[in-house]
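Check the record.
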Amino acid sequence: MVNSADNNLAVKISSLSHGLMVLGRRALQRWVQLLLYASEEGNATNPLMELIAQQVRPRDRDYVDRSFMAGMLSLLDVLMEEPLANIVARMSLHEDIEAALLERSGDIGELLSLYGELETCDAVAVQTRLRTYPNLTADTLNVAQLEALGWANNIAM
């Protein structure tokens, strides 16, 4: 949204904090309201992607921010009832976020794939993917899921 063609920005947004700074408070409030009320269930996106990214690269805040952003944007096609490729084409996203969203490639794409496997309860695929992440175990993944559910429950109340 921040990097849409309407804004003519020369800089690519690569973190949530940078995007929020450029977007501004008023526009952010409108966007958050839309996200909170547009879904049929009324649930906001949970921070699971961010929590998983923190386990994978605990000292890389940029990676965590980009992972969180990719997780949020990955659901826009459902929210806006439009193909994700069309939505992404109107944005100027960091290359790894775009590759993750459209091709599930790169490190963040791998996390999105893991996130999808968790959502579909594909235990075999989750166990296989966990072997590629030395900092992420089934236990830490379960803790992250519980934290994300707690966060979502607090938002819904």
Observations:
- Confidence is low (pLDDT under 50) at residues 37-45.
- The radius of gyration is 16 Å.
- The chain has one domain: 5-156.
